Each structure stands twice: as structure tokens, then as C-alpha cells.
Amino acid sequence: MNVSKFNFPKYILIFFFCFFTVKSIIVPWTFFVNTSFRMDFYDLGLISDFLANTGKGKTFFIDTYGISHLSLHWTPTLFLLVPFYKFFESQFLTVILGNILGCFSIIYFLTFIYRKILSKFTNKLFLISSTIFLSLLFFSNKFINANFVAGHFEIIYFSFSLLTLTMLLENRSFLTISIPLILALGVREDMGLFLSFQLLSLLFIPKNIIPLEKKTKFNILYMIILCTVVVILNLTVFMPLMRADKAYWINRFWSHWGNSGTEVVFNVLTHPLEVLIALKSSGITGFNEAFYYLGVFNPLQWICVHIPGMILFLSNATDKSHLFWYNSAMMLPGFYIASLAGMLVFYNFIRNKIPKYEYIFSGLLILLSIILLIRINRASNSEDYKLKYSNKLEHFDKVLNNIKKFCKKEPQIFATDHKTFSFLPNSKTKYLLDKSEKAEVVIIATPENFKFASDRCDNNIENVNCLINYNNSLEKITQNSNFKSIYQDKYYQVFYDSSKIECK
User: Fold this and answer.
1) Exposure winner among 96, 136, 221, 269, fewest CB in 10 A?
2) Same domain, 122 and 29
3) Is 503 inside any structural domain?
4) How many domains, in total, are found in the chain?
5) For residue 284, what is the enclosing H or E element?
6) Neighbour count for residue 4 (Cβ, 10 Å)
7) Is the residue at 40 inside a domain?
8) Residue 56 domain flag
9) From CA 401, how far away is CA 470, in angstroms rounded?
10) Does residue 367 sit in the same domain as residue 408?
11) Are residues 413 and 356 in the same domain?
12) Pair 396, 413: CB distance under 8 Å
């Protein structure tokens, strides 16, 4: 194939920057101030809490549960975010830092595609149509949208994994690639499992699509070994040192397959029919549909990137088995590259075997691009991914201002309901309502302002029924003679513990 004179226009980078600014910062910010969906899910508050506490010297400590986050997830890479929590109070910081990294990695990946791969093709119509199609496919499908508003840290794995894989496709040196590789492995204890199969999948890309040098193939094998060793060390050494419950995650999400990791793997391998039934009812089809099943055209690579996803697809939790919110972050890097390779394999087949259909293929890409553009506002398991125009956070800001006004000393220890927990300043010590006796000030969203949706409280560490927890806590607070009302409106009730702080 002849190399065409394709100069990557700088204005495309400017377009990427503007587009990502809207998608990953402005739209999620409107979700945040609207207190909408995941932005009011208290995991965001917990993540901000242990990162802010780390900056105070309480390493990865979660105040409301009295445990280290490292006993639940081994996440040393998150140390990189800690300095920011010294200077910024908004818990939106967790979102913006992850999303910026995600933006950078996709732009880097797309730039590589346009400069190093598409530049090899001489058909201008294919060049234009594939550029538009891949741009929309890789940063406008509903799964990356869902990650942008998830308020979780797994998007950081997505970022460093995609950088690692792209650098390997560029045949960069082991030392250079090892930086994002190590950072990806440190995002969570099991990330090496996902990354090892994504690394392996690169070996199945046809050399006429993306040629890998011999040194790169050896680097891939070395990195797979490293990923495997890191996962084993995380699960057998580091997490036990933090007093992690070995069976906690198994019992929570995979107990229907067994009571230990070994038992789960054995039962999955020996019950293929049950596995197929579970996969049929999972999100595996929806995830592939978001990429138009392009990976099928390079089947070995496509199968390879699916293998670690079995952990998610076979879970008993809907958000995991259907890759809602942040759960697709672990799968996306491999699917991005498999979809790219599959599309190019299919195009080369058309061009070489039935060239009269080459322009039809480009027309199909344009049609699919239009569909992607029309459906660009979707986000997994949520309302449409689009700007929210109401600012509900201003009601909470009013509460904080009144607390400052009525208290002689600014309170440092708060307790709130699950919804409000994600909006407290990072510098404050934070508890949920069931630990209200430890707080100086308690903020409770009124029932009209607090929707008791099951995903806000179910499947969390100790909250089975959020409404019961809410009512019991409210009764406990109002019956405690030390707690006195400091402020109330139709959105919030605020109490202070007169034995700990002097207010009003």
C-alpha cells in the first residue's frame, strides 16, 4: 500500500480539545451541580475522603467506616492525586482529574491512528469517513460517556492502559512504556489481569495493519509476566498486610459461582452451559453493539479482550455484569484497539477481494457516524448525557454559609445522608448519619430533596435499606438532647452538637 501525503491538521487537535472540554468537564460539572445520578452517589464522597485524609497523614483512611481503603482495594497510583486535595475543596476534583487523564489518553490514541495508520491509505473517501467514524466511535459512545460522569477512579486505569497499549503499537522502548504500565497496575489490585489480556491481544493484530517490531513482541511478553506477578503480590501479600478480607469480594459479587476464587474458576470452567446463559443475560451484547461488533473481523484479538471481562459479565451485580458507570473502564482500552483492527481487516478484505464495494464501505462508515452523532447523548444506565441546567448545589452552599454565620467557630466534623455526603468540602472530616454522634454538625437532606433510589444505598458496606437508615438516624438525632436545630429550609435540616461546638 502506498503512503499518501496525509498531514495531520492541527485544527483537529483544537477540535478534540474543545470537544473533550465539553464532554469530560462541562457536562459532568452540570451533573455535579444538579446533584444528578452518580454525582450524588456517595462513593464519590468516600474516594474524596480517603484522598483528602491521605494528605492529612491518615493514609487512605475512610472516616465513616474506620478502615483503610487499601484493605478493600490496592490503589497506590491514587497517591498521585493527593497533592491536589491540599488546595481544592470541591469533591468534583475527583471527577475532573480522572476525566482529564482520560481525555489525554484518547487524544494520544487517536493522533497515533491518524498519523501512523490511516496515513497509509490512498483512498481519500475512506480516509475522511474512517477519521470521522473512529473519532465518534472512540470518544462518543455511551460507555465512555458513563465513565465521565461515574465519579470513580477506574477511568485512571483506562487512561494509563490505553497509553501503554498505544505506546507498544508505536514500538517505543520498554523503559518509556513501563511508566504508564506501572501506573495502570497500581489503580486497583486486579488491573493486571485485564491489562495482561489486552497486552496479549496486540500479538494477534495482522502485521499489514499495525506492524510490531521483534523487540516490541518481547516487551509484551515481559509485561504480561509483570502483570501476573503484580496481581499475585497484590492479592497474597499487600492486601493481606492491610487486613483485607480475602472472601469479601467473592461473597459479594460471585457467591453464586463458589466461595473462593479457585472454586469460582473451577465452576465456571466446568459449567459452560450456565456460563452461556449468564452471558446472554449480561451486558456483553450491548457493549459489542456500541462498537458495531467490529472486533469480530479479527477474531483472536476480539476473543482475547473478552476473557478478563468474564469477571464482570458473570457477576451477580447488574452494574458490573452490564458494565454500567465505571465498570466499562477496564474493558474499553482493549475494545478500542480490537475495533480499530477489525475495521481495517474488513476494509482490506473489501479492497483486495471486491474493490467495487470499496466506496460502499466508506459510505457505510459515514452512515454509522451519523447514527453515533444522533445518539451521542446516551450514557449507560442514566438520563441522556447532556447539559443539566438547574443548580441544586446552590441550596447546599446556602446551608454551608448559614453554618459559618451561626457558629462562632467553623465546624470541622460533619455527618450527612448518603446524597449530601458527596458535596462536603474535602478538608472536613466526614461521616454518614449512622455516625452522627461523632460530628459537630449534622446536615440532612429533606425527603423531598433526597430520593431513596436503591442504587444509592444498596450493595454498599453496611446499608441494606437506606430509608430505614435515614429514619432511624433522624430519630436518633432529634432525641439526643445535645443536638439542636441550627437551620432548616425545604431542602435541608441542620443540627449542631452543643457539647462540641457553640452555635446560634
Assistant:
1) 269
2) yes
3) no
4) 2
5) helix 284-289
6) 14
7) no
8) no
9) 24
10) no
11) no
12) no
Instruction: Give the C-alpha separation, 343 to 350, whole Å.
Output: 11
Secondary structure (H, E, C), 227-243 = HHHHHHHHHHHHHHHCC
Strands 413-416 and 429-432: parallel
Tell me: pLDDT of 460 over 70.
no
Taking all residues of the chain, what is their mean pLDDT, rounded to a whole number? 87
Could you give the CA distance from residue 487 to residue 503 in angstroms, rounded to a whole number? Answer: 11
With cell 498519523, the residue in question is 115
Are 362 and 462 part of one and the same domain?
A: no
CA pair distance 213, 370, nearest whole angstrom: 37
- The pLDDT tens digits of the residues spanning 110-128 come to 989 988 888 888 888 888 8
In a domain, 493, yes or no: yes
Range of the domain at 432: 393-497
Per the document, the length of the chain is 504
Block residue for cell numbers 446463559: 277
At residue 8, the pLDDT reads: 53
What distance in Å separates the CA atoms of residue 36 and residue 392, rounded to the nearest whole number? 9
The answer to whether residues 408 and 361 belong to one domain is no
Greatest mean pLDDT among 230-234, 374-378, 414-418, 463-467: 230-234
Residues near 402 by Cβ (< 8 Å), separated by ≥ 6? 486, 487, 494
- Say if residue 141 is in the same domain as residue 238: yes
| Same domain membership, residue 355 and residue 212 | yes
Can you give the pLDDT at residue 10? 66
pLDDT in tens, 140-198: 889 999 999 999 999 999 999 999 999 999 999 999 999 999 999 999 999 999 999 99
